[in-house]
Amino acid sequence: MMRGSPVYIALTVVLIAVNGADAWCGSCDNAPSRSWSWWFGFGKCNCEGGWSGSCCNSWTVSDWDQKVDDWKKGLSCEAQPENACKKNSNPPATPSVEVSWLYEPDNSKSTERQCTDAGCLWTECFPSNNAASFTDSVSADEMCSHCSGPWAGKCDWHSYSPGFLAFAGPGKHCGFNYPDCPASAGKNCWCEDAAKQDLADSWCNNGSNQDRFCPNAFDHGDGGVQSCSWSGWTIAPQTGNIDNDCASWGAAKSGDPQSKAVMADQTIKEFKKAEPGVAVEGATISGAAAVFLSMGAIFGRRRLKKRKSQGAEGGEGVQLKGTNNAV
């Protein structure tokens, strides 16, 4: 590019203007608009309340309650979290969370191998994604206090903006979230007889009672205690055959075909005894359901009687499925 050419002169003027212009800003993040004189980043940013500077990137809000209220509404989310703690007043109280167990895990065995070799049961709980569960309903006291207290500088920043086609669901919001509980907190060994039996029974009952064997909270040892949430869990040792495992633990496996058949038979008997609208074992039989069940029972008896007569005519007994007895 030759000096003196129009293009060269124009570029030079632009560079000089940019270097010397206090109002130049490529993006006005926390401003609803830019002044009418905008041109390639020129023109003053008309900052939203609480923001100042040529690019509206200096936040003057110091009250924690006000900060959280803005973030929940999707305001002042840009230029964060760098500005979140530059001015800080009215810090929230440190939340009081206690770690509680129904049974105490054996902390002397820190690995699965050590645990199972000692004849104990090992559990591993899988941390859930706290960022995915972050909502715009968290209060100032519930939000992770990134600016003060034992969680200062340790919280995770979360910012959400709905997509273009998101016609339902939460609106724009942001804020600080507690980090996921460490995976090590979810790995524990259980040697107490009562704990082992309850654990075996729970696992064989479709993995119920996870909250008894996955910690409700974790103490970091520096004053910071946080609640924990888990997306699932597993148990060791396992052979790959749940029936054999449950039998070796002395636990009844829920969902066993025989158990289901017995439960279904008992439920039908109770329904037959029950009047319409009466609750039976946590369920309620309506008038229509009673009629339906009665018709089904009558139809079933007719089919069975027909099969018996056919068997008698053919000179053979009728074998009922699931039993060893001929009718």
From TrEMBL:
Species annotation: Triparma strigata
Alphabetically ordered keywords of this record: Membrane, Signal, Transmembrane, Transmembrane helix
Protein's recorded name: Uncharacterized protein
Annotated region described as Disordered, given as residue ranges: 307-327
Signal sequence, renumbered to the chain: 1-23
Transmembrane feature ranges: 278-299
Superkingdom field: Eukaryota
Taxonomic lineage: Eukaryota, Sar, Stramenopiles, Ochrophyta, Bolidophyceae
